[in-house]
Amino acid sequence: MALKSFVEVSADSHFPLENLPFGVFRPKPAASTAAADPLPPRPGVAIGDFVLDLSAVASAGLFDGPILKNSQCFFQTSLNMFVEMGRPAWREARTTIQKLLSADEPTLRDNDSLRDEALLPMIEVQMLLPTVIGDYTDFFSCLHHHKNCLTIFGEMENGIPPNWENWFHLPMGYHGRASTVVISGTDIIRPRGQGHPRGNSPPYFGPTHKLDFELEMAAIVGPGNELGKPVDINQAADHIFGLVLMNDWSARDMIAWEYVPLGPFLGKSFSTTVSPWIVTLDALEPFACDAPEQDPESFGCFTELSRNGQKPLTLTNGSERKFLEDGDEVILTACCKGKGYNVGFGTCTGKVLPATP
Amino acid sequence: MALKSFVEVSADSHFPLENLPFGVFRPKPAASTAAADPLPPRPGVAIGDFVLDLSAVASAGLFDGPILKNSQCFFQTSLNMFVEMGRPAWREARTTIQKLLSADEPTLRDNDSLRDEALLPMIEVQMLLPTVIGDYTDFFSCLHHHKNCLTIFGEMENGIPPNWENWFHLPMGYHGRASTVVISGTDIIRPRGQGHPRGNSPPYFGPTHKLDFELEMAAIVGPGNELGKPVDINQAADHIFGLVLMNDWSARDMIAWEYVPLGPFLGKSFSTTVSPWIVTLDALEPFACDAPEQDPESFGCFTELSRNGQKPLTLTNGSERKFLEDGDEVILTACCKGKGYNVGFGTCTGKVLPATP
């Protein structure tokens, strides 16, 4: 049975009272004040088609639990301070917000002026990056994606024998570019770079020929550990605030030429898109299940779907794609299906623009 | 001929009036107030054995140029705001500070109370990371280091043919971990991780057997470019605030096992040390010269010096090293030699502590 909020939440909404994902938003300026400075970013929680302004809730003194009572964490322009406070603070906030938004709780429901101030229609706000990102690391979680990429790039382009023995022992990861992580909706300019045709031809420079997406989940990690002190795997969940969708845009021709020996770099670093609403582990916990068997294969990018451009994919509108073309928009979405409700991630979108001249 | 400051600067100092490197420091609390909160970090400039507190200079209204006059950039806890202002602001600050500290300028020289407030003995301050680091990328600049590493790891351990053709066409780089860049003097705890012995043995887990240093220069980059808009190479200097020394600590056994296909990761990400004083391009400009021919080889780490542990190195105290041992301290230093003065980088130090149990 779904929980009931006084805010209307449609049956197919990703954001019912069971979810309550955190983000950072800025009210769009009213048309009459378009020339004024934009309003400052502040933390919010999604409920149905509305955003609950946590700075307004905090200003009204409604975070009255022992951890958040006198905290400045919801008066910041990012969620970093709140994330660094750890799971007890996250749970206290969730409990307070869930009660405040429930159908039978009058505090916010019956206070017209506070409700108007604190609950903003989602279409009237601009979503921003929810945290300042101190570092970004990317992992292979799927053996078949790893095998596919190694086979496609390794065997087909570089004559290097596939070697995935270390995959079974290690987290196969690398650092991405923290400073080019962008929020859903940001346009993606086709990057220029080098590729290398087969055989003895010299490398070429120009807009990538093989712009690809990658469907990923990203974890927002905090609080951190002390330098040099490992995190016990049993405490891992205390360090993961929540998850977002991620599109790890990739220029495959650039990666194939650059990735030996230091790994992917310019073919990945031009942009990485994340969805704006961080879904907490507490919201996801009821949906925990065993990991799927890693067979048969699942495909999460054009490199796999089109076998590196060898087999074009027919889209539902009849057009064909080997890789992304200028003007294409990629929309990722995901949700957990509960009984009578969803706990969803909203969307993670980006449109491909032509390379700059 | 060296410039003359009213602050005494010894002939071998790295920090004469010609240098004026920027950093961020915190006055060490006096013994009597040890229990009090630490004083907030603020920007400073090194002069001889002293630090000029730029927040004190700004409070006194002595930054009177058109760009810095009403700026809050020296009241921040990092240099980010100042760095993002660009080269005109950097040059205006340098001109103002150089004049203020010169022997024939009475403003600061003859104002006892301001001088006592603004000029702090370097031994009475703690240096901090000068900027919040949004991203950190690492490049091969030396062909021979690249060849050496590929030969040592590629041929000797993985049976992969060395391939350095792309080095001649591309910046061979990767992203390091921005969140583990630490300031000079921070202890380095020997990391635990996986290595893989030769042959068919399984991988082992434990403290690295091959802890190494790497002598590098790091550029502090800012202001940034707009996403998707490349920086013209002729404008590159406008985006580089200055340089520091960097020790890119490396666990060679971990890297050898993990680096195919995504590049160095856990064997690099445990700590990277930078020196605290950012030497500006304007201070270095008089020493610009042609790059050295990349032959014969120069060695910048134990992997090269000891041929991956095959040939122990005899230190000046008679002891031998293949790689770093617990208790070893690595001290990097560098300076440009002018006529009667140096423009130096100070030191970049770190001591190796045993792995955590």
From TrEMBL, chains A, B:
Enzymatic class: hydrolase
Protein EC: 3.7.1.2
Organism superkingdom: Eukaryota
InterPro entries to which the protein is assigned, alphabetical: Fumarylacetoacetase, Fumarylacetoacetase-like_C, Fumarylacetoacetase_C_sf, Fumarylacetoacetase_N, Fumarylacetoacetase_N_sf
GO molecular function, one term: fumarylacetoacetase activity
Domain Fumarylacetoacetase-like C-terminal: 148-287
Record key words, sorted: Calcium, Hydrolase, Magnesium, Metal-binding, Phenylalanine catabolism, Tyrosine catabolism
Residues where substrate binds: 140, 259
Residues annotated as the enzyme's active site: 145
Reaction(s) the record says it catalyses: 4-fumarylacetoacetate + H2O = acetoacetate + fumarate + H(+)
Binding positions (Ca(2+)): 138, 214, 216, 248
One of the GO BP terms on file: L-phenylalanine catabolic process
Pathway noted in the entry: Amino-acid degradation; L-phenylalanine degradation; acetoacetate and fumarate from L-phenylalanine: step 6/6
Binding positions (Mg(2+)): 248, 268, 272
Cofactor or coenzyme needed: Mg(2+); Ca(2+)
Ranges for domain Fumarylacetoacetase N-terminal: 18-130
Family of this protein: Belongs to the FAH family.
Name of this chain's protein: Fumarylacetoacetase
Species per Swiss-Prot/TrEMBL record: Asparagus officinalis
Lineage: Eukaryota, Viridiplantae, Streptophyta, Embryophyta, Tracheophyta
